[in-house]
Amino acid sequence: MESEIAIDIAAPPALVFALARDVEQWSTLLPHYARSTVVDRAPDGAVAADFIARRPLLPLLGLALPVAWWARTWNDPDSFRLRFRHIAGATRGMDVTWRIEPRTQGCRVVIEHRFASRMPGFAAFVDRAFTRPIAGRTLATFKALAESVQSAVAATTNPTT
Q: Domains plus CATH for the chain?
């Protein structure tokens, strides 16, 4: 299974990258993340993190299903890319790449997921039922955060008289 989800953000790629690269802060920044704990730090800067995100089931009632996984993650500041390799959980083996691409009015963030499962249909089910809903909320939240920061910076540097 290969899938892609993307969003346009009216903020500089460096700002979006700075917010997204610190996975240890995701549970603070992203309301649908219950945990994002770094469990290992490699000398090359890669980290292994334990994540729990909430997949809404009945949003009006506040009911959500916790989804847990561990991932090794690393990033490349020069290309504004984040990489994740799921190392534990039902999605073990999933490869995830975030590409933060400069645009005239900010950037476009593309998240690619690659996942093969031995169980027929499982990868497609995971993508539709969990990966896309969680990644979509993650992108929407980072968009709101980055655009709010960018707006505040613009207001500070270009005050109206």
A: 2-156 (3.30.530.20)
